[in-house]
Amino acid sequence: MLRADKMTVKTQEALVEAQELARFTGHGSIEAEHLFRALLEQEGGLVAPILQKIGADTAIIRDRVEGALKKLPKVSGNTQIFISPVLNRVLEVQKQGEYRAVQEHDGARPADSGG
């Protein structure tokens, strides 16, 4: 289960933007592509600068994400938008990775010698 109170502000903002994108494009669920596009275009975010730093062409990536979004099925009417199972799994894996990173960091600390 996703808990907004356990997410960074940037993650919360990206999910809201992904939801708005899904609604605007007529999709019934928030997919990984929606979130990736939101992260790619996020002001002050890390995704675009990291991709640029490794030499990726963000314009090409953005075009490919747009192409993927256009292939998603559309819904009509006033439907409730939900997080797709795929995106939910992505977020769960990300959360588990953060948890493991904290555990590894805590485990790497020297034991308190009591002195």
Question: What can you see in these coordinates?
Answer:
The chain has a single domain (7-107), classed as Clp, N-terminal domain (Double Clp-N motif, Orthogonal Bundle), CATH 1.10.1780. Helix 2 runs antiparallel to helix 4 (58-71). The chain is mainly alpha-helical and 115 residues long. The protein has a two-stranded parallel ribbon with strand order 1-2. The chain has five helices and two strands; from the N terminus they run αβαααβα. It has helices spanning 9-24, 32-41, 47-53, 58-71, 85-107; strands at residues 29-30, 82-83.
Structural class designation: mainly alpha
Please work out how many helical segments DSSP would assign: 5
In CATH, what is the homologous superfamily?
Answer: Clp, N-terminal domain
Q: What is the architecture at the second tier of CATH? A: Orthogonal Bundle
CATH class type: Mainly Alpha
What percent of the residues sit in helical stretches (DSSP H or I)? 55-70%
Most strands sheet: 2 strands, parallel
Overall radius of gyration: 18 Å
Shape: globular
Distance between the termini: 42 Å
CATH topology: Double Clp-N motif
Describe the oligomeric state of these chains in a short phrase.
single chain
Number of strand segments:
2
* Order of neighbouring strands in the sheet with most strands: 1-2
N-to-C SSE string, H for helix and E for strand? HEHHHEH
Note the beta-strand portion.
under 5%
Question: Which features does this protein show?
Answer:
single chain; mainly alpha; Double Clp-N motif; two-stranded parallel sheet; 5 helices; 3% strand
